[in-house]
User: Fold this.
Amino acid sequence: MSQEFDVVVIGAGPGGYIAAIRAAQLGFKTACIDAYKGPDGQPALGGTCLNVGCIPSKALLQSSEHFHALNHGFAEHGINVKGASFDPAQMVARKDGIVQKLTAGVAFLFKKNKIANLHGLGSLKGRADEKWQIEVRDGDKVETVSASHVIVATGSRPRPLPGVEIDNKTVLDNTGALAMAATPKRLGVIGAGVIGLEMGSVWARLGSEVTILEALPTFLGAADAQIAREALRTLTKDTGLNIQTGVKIGNIKTGKTVTVEYEKDGKSESLTVDKLIVAIGRVPNTDGLGAEAVNLQVDERGFIVVDDSCHTNLPNVWAIGDVVRGPMLAHKAMEEGVAVAERIAGQKPHVDFGSIPWVIYTSPEIAWVGKTEEQLKAAGIAYKKGTAPFAPNGRALGMGQAQGTVKILADAETDRILGMHVIGPMASELVTEGVLSLEFKAASEDIARIVHAHPSLSEVVHEAALACDKRALHG
Assistant:
């Protein structure tokens, strides 16, 4: 007889494991199915984010920033180091240790919340007696469990580049980019998105000559154009990235090296590198889910179709995270997971896509929430803006990280904050003030009237809010 559950979650990434925990907290008998295995061949929870995405990339970024500071930033503090060396293998080993700690932490949370942890590939097989039948296949081992509600949280995988084989030795996806045990002399990256910029930054700081090829004509088109221009200057001048936009990729020849033929401004060009990272986005992961067999609606791009409540076209089947519409962000998936569990319990939670922050963990960091200036212009919304640089900020100067800008956009009539955009130190933390402002419908004057600690980086946010009314105190 198969095991029966109130809620079964398929996928143990950020959205899935959080959905399972919240469902268990609400009193549901819960199981989570996940097929991922780590490099040691053992099951590892946490999905792409914990294993080969958000978390390991930040560990490598921190290591590379330390090494860069040692060689280029410590001298002005009176700290002089000669003959500093770098061990990429140790950096990767440290990253692996962090990943193992966090994935083990998810397993502990499952045990604490009495969530059944089922390893294998989960697929929908149909419905009987108002219970969904889900097959769990782990090699030759197959079992079937039943559930009143199913939450699909199968995430995404790297978008392939047609005609190019990812071997994770010479041509790499995000998994291979996080596991290089030596610094390549020449590194090529296709794609100037989050993954491309972060991985390019890591290896540039460790000595690689990094060239990034981007198909789109503009750099960071999703960001506010003013912030994107400053980011481009900083990443090329200070980090040393060679960023080429408006590129049309042609043939890619692999061997001991990789040669990428491409066209830019109507001219044929080529790039020869020792390693090539392909980072051209991600696609929803529905392979093996059994969507066709149960008539689960999937759109032309492969996303599971859901309504505003994350409910699919099937009764009691929900979907969240990268596998549905909206930004492919771990924190978006987490909030959807919590909301779905609460909806199953009869509650009425709400997730506002308009106040979800975006972050790129380069140095300096880039973060934003809400509308860009370009979006407001296109929508015909009258607005005012305030900007403030980090350059005169005492805390930023003390940290040796006084590059960047905070920009706040507010409604011209009501003063309600419509967007906040940051490039600078700890932008990932500072942007939360913008998130709160959007959620609570704050005005720029509200931030301007709030006392911010001195000295702190947050004073630059305060200054940008003051600048919305042309009363900045330090600019």
